[in-house]
Amino acid sequence: MDGEVRSVTGKVLALLGAFTPACPELTLSELARRAGLSLATAHRRVAELVAWGALERGADGRYRVGLRLWEVASLAPRGLGLREAAMPFLEDLYEVTHENVQLAVREGLELVFVERIAGRKAVPVWTRVGGRFALHATGVGLALLAHAPVEVQEEVLGSPLQAYTEKTVTNPARLREMLAAVRRTGYAVSDGQVTTDAVSVAAPVRDGEGTVIAAVSLVVHASGAHPATLAPLVQAAARGIGRACGSPGGARVFPREPIAR
Amino acid sequence: MDGEVRSVTGKVLALLGAFTPACPELTLSELARRAGLSLATAHRRVAELVAWGALERGADGRYRVGLRLWEVASLAPRGLGLREAAMPFLEDLYEVTHENVQLAVREGLELVFVERIAGRKAVPVWTRVGGRFALHATGVGLALLAHAPVEVQEEVLGSPLQAYTEKTVTNPARLREMLAAVRRTGYAVSDGQVTTDAVSVAAPVRDGEGTVIAAVSLVVHASGAHPATLAPLVQAAARGIGRACGSPGGARVFPREPIAR
Predict the structure, then answer these.
(1) Are B52 and A261 an interchain contact pair (Cβ–Cβ within 8 Å)?
(2) Residue B100 parent element (H or E)
(3) What residue of A is the nearest CA neighbor of B89?
(4) What is residue A246's predicted lDDT score, i.e. its pLDDT?
(5) In terms of C-beta density within 10 A (0-12 exposed, 13-18 middle, 19 or more buried), how is residue B216 classed?
(6) Which residues of chain A are modeled with pLDDT < 70?
(7) Where is the IclR-ED domain positioned along the sequence (chains A, B) (predicted)?
(8) Phi, psi (deg, nearest 5) at residue A250
(9) What is the ipTM of this complex?
(10) 3-state class (DSSP) for residue A145
């Protein structure tokens, strides 16, 4: 069985990877099953993880990801590092619009939301900080995909593309045209392609060398939205974030290619 | 040597723990040295961590904490979970004051900042999201310490207490009086005790059972600050956050006692 031949490092990582947004709290037996470990092995490893603070055991006996792991993870340049550099610009975007502001990076063939600021009256969106999403539907996703290496684009466009609404573009040829438009205009628009009532306007964030390292977006109510009017605002924020990342002491961010898992 | 008898889990965790706010990027030999591992062992483990995405290797050959670890860590109830529940209330505090807003939890004998919103014109503060700080000096620290178990209070007050400014209170008897005042009034004030030009007003966040799980603060310029006027604002935010955490689907947060490391 897989669990028997895996290295101990692999077992430890499998235990950490057992936690998902849908299941952030797990019993020991759930942890063992999801990690593909025997109960005895899981018990031993989990005790070590709890002692270090990578996991925490609640009063209910269930395990959760621990604050100590979160502290270490907060050092990830593409997580909180990028977020810290971007925050003043995201706050500015939020203050002048009171709409949803999002910051995302590409991780392989998907995107990960690094920050989200949501106005109370803003249109509801599905995003969660630390959560993943497909690249072909959202504004930030299109901005990231438009500037991804060709092989990444081809792999995404060659895979089955989920339709979230009737407006989601799943035709590869049409998506290629949209990505070309993103590169030409400097911003991406997702109009009702994730939820019918929302329009997202996104711009790529570039580091000092011009490499796209992230994307920032404004997500507004579809009724009365003027993407072309919002675009300069988002593009200016993206430029500011890129500058802040490239400055001394700023976050150093490298895009990461998909890897076999 | 320690590295030889440690379990593989311990070695993996030592590699992750090698990254600190001061050293978020490390070469392989730095990683090996800090983790107390041979270069060969470190090389093998690091390769596994990179393959999984727990670490990332930059174009410069240095290693950083990876986005995949950050994704898993974002599931920590006391990290982003708490932060997500608190964010609307922190945004409100920021909007009406445009000062520094901070959210922290106690981790053993220190505090960890879980969120910070800083106005551009706000007084400069030292905090970093994911960063640690002593409990005896800041507003959030005093609010957390006042409601910590007696043994935690005694261990903190019995340790050498750093003086950050001439106004930092390091006398245990005086600190005990201050903690009693925090419990009586429901809020904590740190006036020039971390930096001379800043005043912090903090309030404890309680879960549904009344347990203090976090603290929220407003940090303003010392000149013209009226802590008693700011306190109700901070206390109201703290109550809102506590309610959001206790609600169905809200973050479930457990305080964690100090453990031997």
Answers:
(1) yes
(2) strand B100-107
(3) A120
(4) 67
(5) buried
(6) 1-5, 119-126, 246-261
(7) 68-247
(8) -75, 170
(9) 0.77
(10) helix
Cα B175 off chain centre by: 20
The whole-number pLDDT of residue A1 equals 40
Q: What is the pLDDT of residue A97?
A: 84
**Under-50 pLDDT residues of chain B:** 1-4, 248-252, 254-261
What pLDDT does residue B29 have? Answer: 96
Cut 0.80: pTM above it? no
Record: contact A17-B74, CB cut-off 8 A: no
Residues of B in contact with A9 (CB under 8 A): 8, 12, 45, 48-49
**Nearest CA distance, A204 vs chain B (angstrom):** 19
What's chain A's Rg over C-alpha atoms?
20
Q: What is the per-residue pLDDT for A38? A: 95
- The angle formed by the CA atoms of residues B88, B93 and B94, to the nearest 5 degrees, is 95
Q: How far is A87 from chain B (nearest CA, A)?
A: 8
Give the separation between CA B215 and CA A27, rounded to whole angstroms.
Answer: 29
- H or E element, residue B214: strand B212-221
Alpha carbon of A69: minimum distance to chain B alpha carbons (Å)? 6
User: Are A9 and B48 in contact, with CB atoms under 8 Å apart?
Assistant: yes
Inter-chain CB proximity A252 and B120 less than 8 Å: no
Q: What is the pLDDT of residue A249?
A: 42
pLDDT score, position A5: 53
CB contact under 8 Å between A76 and B67, yes or no, is yes
Report pLDDT for A117: 82
Q: Calculate how close chain A gets to B174, using CA atoms only, in Å.
A: 31
Q: What whole-number distance in Å separates Cα of residue A258 and Cα of residue B88?
A: 34
CA atoms within 13 A on the CB side of A49: 27
Distance from CA of B166 to the nearest CA of A (A): 29
Do residues A233 and B44 lie in contact, with contact meaning Cβ atoms separated by under 8 Å? no
C-alpha span between A53 and B220 (Å, rounded): 33
A56 with B254: Cβ contact below 8 A? yes
Q: How far apart are CA B76 and CA A64, in angstroms?
A: 6
What DSSP assignment string belongs to A87-121?
A: HHHHHHHHHHH-SEEEEEEEETTEEEEEEEE--TT
CA distance A189 to A143: 9
Angle between helices A150-158 and A172-185 (to 10 degrees): 150
What was the pLDDT predicted at B2?
42
Count of beta carbons in the 10 Å neighbourhood of residue A124: 10
Put simply, the answer to whether B24 touches A80 (Cβ < 8 Å) is no
Q: How many residues does chain B have?
A: 261
Question: Which chain A positions have a beta carbon within 8 Å of B252's beta carbon?
Answer: 25, 58, 64
* Residue ranges of domains in chain A, CATH in brackets: 2-72 (1.10.10.10), 77-246 (3.30.450.40)
CB contact under 8 A, A256 and B79: no
